[in-house]
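Note on ligand handling. Small-molecule inputs were canonicalized before submission; formal charges were left as drawn, and no protonation-state enumeration was performed. Where a ligand contained multiple stereocentres, the stereochemistry in the source SMILES was retained. For flavin mononucleotide, this procedure yielded the string shown in the input block below.
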Amino acid sequence: MTDRRTILQLLAVSSLAAVPAVGATLKPSNDPAAAWRNPGAGQKDPRLFSLAHAILAPNPHNRQPWLVSLEGDDTIILYFDTTRRLPATDPYDRQLAIGCGAFLEILSIAAAEVGYDAQISLFPLGEPQPVLNDTPIARVRFMKGGAKDPFFSFITLRRSNKEAYNAGKPVSAQTLENLLRVETMEGLTFSGALSGNPQCESLRQLSIQAYRREFETPVALKESIDLMRIGKAEIAKHRDGIDLDFPGIGAMQAMGMITREKMMTPGTTAYQQGLEQYDPLAKSAAAYVWIISDSKDRYAELAAGRAYARLNLRATSLGIAMHPMSQALQEYAEMATIKAEAERVVGMAPDKCLQMLARIGYGGKVPPSPRRGLTEHLRT
Ligand SMILES: Cc1cc2nc3c(=O)[nH]c(=O)nc-3n(C[C@H](O)[C@H](O)[C@H](O)COP(=O)(O)O)c2cc1C
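Structure output:
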């Protein structure tokens, strides 16, 4: 019989570990890891080179909500892909906008690497509210210039590491300080609390509670389950969402042990394991870090996304694993009391916005998450 804890950990780890490294059995176009290997290699157009990197940005539920059109010979227009919303857990597209900010930051770092300054004008047709729409998120002009950014070499190494971390290896106060020393970004505050600090303990408890609350809210749970890609074939087909793959998953599926219906049904083992899956993750956090913005508008969300991408890249450069735990920040009725408590714990003033919360620690090496590939993002 499969060990319960093992399944729990396997379910917790969104992994491509079992996907053949070079897609030996997959058609190249369906290889979910292809985008991570030499992105933009041989590409003469700096925009396409930069875009090949930008699609590696962190983004909620790996929705990859980016559409791009090329204008003239030096401009890109970035649009939000309105087919990729998360209406239950991100009703105002705040987190998806953060994912667009992360995309722009990585685009800009990659442009500088090949000698271009990506000049970004946000919302050229105005700020979309209360949800994102199909008006442009940004117009980006590539002008000769730009200073190389040392984070470039970490773009393909960056991960959201969703495994349990090494509980016996604390993050030092000095390392946390180095991590949070992100270049000054106006309107944003970066903070953190190390294990042992009561703030960290409260955030551990809150992130477990928030995850369980989300899990017990059927419409929110269904949103995640619908985005689950179970086993190699589904992962290769979609190359997005929450990928679930580990040795033996095919057999478990064939025996009916892992089905979407069971995952949604209280009382089943699959449901119970899903419900408990954040517990060991939160408990192994060596620290929590968070980003608060002074304002609550779309500009703040994009700035938070740019800042989060840099934070994740800096963590990568320091050998620190990072995992956003966003449930307690989400804006739906069932989460309201937990969200208020999270904001209280981090000491947030009411007119500000807690944009990102992540656990950090020392973790093992994890494979990259799937990407659909650049051609899927190009608007013709
Ligand atoms: C705004 C935002 C919120 C996120 N929230 C969560 C979360 O609550 N739980 C989680 O496991 N991952 C979360 N992630 C990480 C994404 O799942 C991850 O970026 C995506 O699957 C792609 O994987 P990668 O970052 O390893 O490339 C979040 C990422 C962003 C940008």
